[in-house]
Structures are given as structure tokens and as C-alpha cells.
Amino acid sequence: MADQPRLLEGLDPEQRQAVTAPRGPVCVLAGAGTGKTRTITHRIAYLVQRGLVTPRQVLAVTFTARAAGEMRTRLRELGAAGVQAQTFHAAAFRQLRYFWPRVHDMAMWQLTDNKFRLVMQAANRLGLSTEREDVRDLAGEIEWAKSSLISPEQYPAAAQQAGRETPILPELIAKAFAGYERIKSGAQMLDFDDLLLHIAAILEDREDVAEEFRSQYRSFVVDEYQDVNPLQARVLDAWVGNRDDLTVVGDANQTIYSFAGASPKWLINFPRKYPEATVVRLERDYRSTPQVVGLANQVIGAARERPAGTRLKLVGQRPDGPRPDFAEYDDETDEADAIARKVAQLAKRGVPLSEIAILFRVNAQSEVYEKALSDAEIPYQVRGGERFFARAEIRQAMATLRTAIARDTDATDLPGTVRELLAEVGLTDEPPAGGSARERWESLIALVELAEGLVGTVPDADLQRYVAELDARAEAQHPPTVEGVTLASLHAAKGLEWDAVFLAGLVEGTLPIQHADTDAAVEEERRLLYVGVTRAREHLHLSWALARAGGKRFRRRSRFIYNLVPDGHPAALPSKAKPPQPPARQAATIKPECRVCSTTLVRTMDIKLGRCSDCPSDVDETLLEQLKAWRSERARQLKVPAYVVFTDATLTAIAEQRPTDESALVGISGIGASKIQKFGGDVLALINRVN
């Protein structure tokens, strides 16, 4: 058991305040890199050490199995083994298995492992597309509805109110949703959202069950509280009841899952719900250099209408480092090749490849970077290697290690023993030249490095202890690091960090994403950039390209970049070494201004229209009506809602600005290369006819 002085050792004043706060409501507003996991695990261990709770009376929930596994590991090291640290769904599943037979007088329904098949059946019965991508989109809408506590009957109105870009008509999604629920219930199956719905209903409806549950769990901790959705909030209320022994930790500036129903409102409103709550702000950033921290503060400081609970300003605690670098390229291939060269330079300077990441907004951007790294013979892994333990060589290695335990191998040199055993499955002293053989070698050597790390913390660890650690990591989805550059989306990068981060493809239509048509949606895109910036410890590179590979230079740098590039930086102005650039190039280097009064535009709708909202409109009503008629016909042909073609705001901007060529058309916010390719010719022909 860790003693109190050791638990408080090394904590800064704000962390110490959170750790030692009395039992009751505690809200920790924790900025990126401020040590939130350290703070909450020390708080739990402190309460246990003081005898205020026993470990088994604490339920700590987070959003990923990896984070829950890390929390359990830290708590064991702090002498608080036995605390239930789980995801929301894992905790609910465990509780349902216990209470379901008593409540329903029958065995618990089976948790489906093939939700996709059930959704496909529902779609097929309605004559809807059963193509894989279409079914996946439909399943996503059903998940959003259930996590938002929306029934099939409520879905059409709720989707419209939320401004969701539905893949098919909302009424059809509602029918498929209802059909899916009937198929699932008829087969006596549950999906993951049902776990939360059922446990909440049981605790709300059965007082005897609620009393038994609350006699077991008396203290609750919620990590990443800004990501709670309505269903999870309902479950948490059912767990806590009328008590207030609740610690929540979060950062509203990192709310990036609104599309899945997450909302920071519960974090922001926590002090209102619990007026006696202890509120602690963690703003000392121990992860990043002051230069990276300064840029992060610039990014989030430009956010509009920030609630009081989001106004954290990070203060860098590390020594100075290099300034963040900015670069503009002619096309994506140039950008990717340049990033690969910079990665190689960092590696030569001693930065491990596993400490370098290339992050982008959408997964489809990955391919060009994969090719550039492959051409440069730089190993990489996509999305951080989450499937490490599913790899064939790792499964084979684990079988070999377990067999060695059965032979009662007595390992005095654990790393050496592991290396010898893995030689049986292909581990060599020197790495292969490349290709799949090199990838296999990197995976196996990562197991050896994990053994070395274990011996560093548990000197007398043997092979059995080592394999148990591997099993725990596999269950928690917490793989050892493979030596390779990480390629990941900004969403997938949440919760991770690297010495060097490349934020690539920062152009309008990608960040913010093209369908971010409201101020709220654009602000979420800004928070995504903030998350990306705060992943970097020391080296940070931001870049964008004015065209796809070999395409026309229609793109413009992201609006989020305008005030970040230092004056005089080469990326702030068109290159003097090149001939004069077309309008699209110049548009990428200036701030959006009102075409009527020349005021710098900030609001999303103003940027789209190209003018201030209170400046006079010169919309061509005839053109606008014909554009809407054309849009309706194209939407009917494509079998999509009209706004998927163009939103009303985009059509209004076209009817006001009346572009006469592709360069002018792409200058309207929300119209990118894909829209030009699909609809540009039709729109320009229509404009020319009306003119």
C-alpha cells in the first residue's frame, strides 16, 4: 500500500488539490498534457489509503479498453488493486450478467457479435442497398440515435434538428432502425447500446436492485467526461442515484465526437448540478514545449463563443524547443514526399520512428503518405498498430511463449530467454531489409523490448509474469510500440502523443471538413486541429497542398492557419522563386474578406457567402430558383437528400457571386475538388444560360 506522502510526491499544487479534495463532487478541468490520468489515479489511491473507500467500492469508467487498462495498471502500482476500472459498456455488461436473471427470470440475452448482419437484414427487407458501405452508414445512424436516446419514431425530426447529413432519407432510416430492433429482439439479442439502455432501466425501475448496486459501489470516477453522450449520462445518473461521490475529469476543448452524440454540456454544467463541488483547473502542460503550447493556445484561443469551462490556457513546463514549422506545396505528392524527407532527417538526428506521427483529417488521406514512406523505405504503421495482438506472428509467438511456461522454463535473463524463444518463430539478430519480413521482425522485437521494460520495473519477473503482462495488454488493447512512423486520423490520435507530429493536408474542405456548414460544426473542426497540435511533444510541422496529385490548384489553406503562420514566413506568401500563380494560389494566402466592405470574415455563413451578413445581398433570384430545381433533380437521380448535392447556403453563395469558371467556383467555401468534378460543369452551364 502506497503511503500518503508518496502519493502526493511530485504533484503540482493544482494536482494536489484535486487528489486531496474530500469525498463528494469534484470536477477536474484538465488541459492537454496536464497529467489528468496521474491525478485521478492518485486521487483514487489517496481515498483508498485514507480508508474512505475500499478498492471494490470504486467504479472508474472511461471510453476505451486501452485507457481502462492503463488506469488499472497505475492503480495496482499505487496499491489500489481491485478498483473496477472499465469502459461504460464493459461495466454495464458485467452488471447485466448479474442482475438480468433476477429481473427477467431468464438467462441474459446474447450479446450480438454481428450487428452488421442484422442491420443488413433490416435494410434488405425494405429494399434498401445492402452494399457494405451503405449498411455501415445505416448502422452508424442507428448507433447515434440510440446513444442520443432517440427512438425510431423520433429519428426523422431529431436528425433534421441536429443537422445530420443522412445517407438516405431520414424516414427510410427510421424504418430500418425499427426493423433492426424487431429482428434483434425476436432473436433475443442485445447490441452494445442495449447494455447501457437495459442497466439504466433496471436501476431506475427496480429499487431493490438499485439499493444492492449502490451498497457495492459508493464512489465513481469518470475520465474524458467531455465525451459523455445522453445515454451514458443516463447510466451514470442511475449508478450514482441521489449521492454525490463523483469525480469527473475532462477538457471541453477536446470535444471531437459530437457526430456520435458526445457533448461537453455535462462537464460544463457540473458545478451547477453540484454547487458544492470542488473545481480544479489543470493548465500546466508537461507534455509539450512552450513553442508547441503557444501554438495550441493560438488555435483554441480563436474559438468563438467559448463557455467559461473551456477557457483553459496551457502553460508549458518543458524547456524551449524548435518553433512549429509551416509549409505549402503545389500538390499532395510534393507534400507527402517532403514529409517523408523530413521524417528521415528527424530519424538521422536520433528521433525514433515510433515517436513520429503523420496525422490527417480523414483516413482516405493515408494512401499518399503510405506510398511516400514506402518509397523512402521508412517503416510505418497505420492507426497506431491497434491490431498488434491479432497479427499472425504475434499469435504464433504467444503460443511459443506459453509452451515454454508449460516446460517450466526458469528464466534468469528474461529478455534473453524471450529472444531465444522467439528465434523459433523467425526473430533474427539483424533486421531483414524490408517488406513483410521486416514488419514481422519489428513486431517480434517489440515483444523483446517489452520484456526489457518489464524487468526494469519488476526485476524478478519470470516468463509466466511476462506472459501474464502480454495477456493483460492484449485484453486492454495496449500493444507495445513497434518501430515505425504512425499514420492516423486526428480522431484516432486522441489520447496519444509523439515527439514529432506532422499535421498534413490542412486545406479548406478537409479541415474544416466540407460538410461543416454551421458555426458549431466548424468549431468542432477547430478543436480537432487543437487535438492534433497538442499531440506533439517537441517537433510540430503543419502543411497543406494546393492540389491533389497532378490536379489543378483549386485548394486553399485552412482558415484555421491564417493567423498561425508568422509574418515573413515563406508559407505566408506566394513563392518568389516561381512564376505568378493563378487565383486559387493567391486565394490560399490571404484572409477571407467581405466583397462589399472588405471586413475580415469570421462567421461560417459569412465566409460561405463572401460577405458580412448585414451587407446588402445581390442574389440573382432567377438563378437561385433554377439552381434549386437542378439540385432537386440531381438529388433524385443520386437517391440522396438535396443538401448532399449542395446546401441552401452554397446555392445562395453561387447565385450571389455568379462564378464563370472553375477557379471562381472553387473560391466559394464548401466547394472542393470532388464537388467540382461531380457538379461543376452543370452549375457553370446553368449560370452561363441565365446570364
Largest sheet: 6 strands, parallel
- What structural category arises from helix and sheet content? alpha/beta
Instruction: Supply Rg.
Output: 27 Å
Spatial separation of the terminal alpha carbons: 81 Å
Principal-axis shape: globular
What structural keywords apply?
single chain; 691 residues; alpha/beta; six-stranded parallel β-sheet; 30 helices; globular
Brief account:
The chain is an alpha/beta fold. The chain is built from 30 helices and 16 strands.
Characterise this structure.
This protein is an alpha/beta fold and 691 residues long. 49% of the residues lie in helices and 10% in strands. It contains 30 helices and 16 strands. The strands form four sheets. It has a six-stranded parallel beta sheet. It has a six-stranded parallel beta sheet with strand order 11-16-15-12-14-13, sandwiched between helices. Helix 15 links the parallel strand 9 and strand 10. The chain is globular, with a radius of gyration of 27 Å. About 2% of the residues have low confidence.
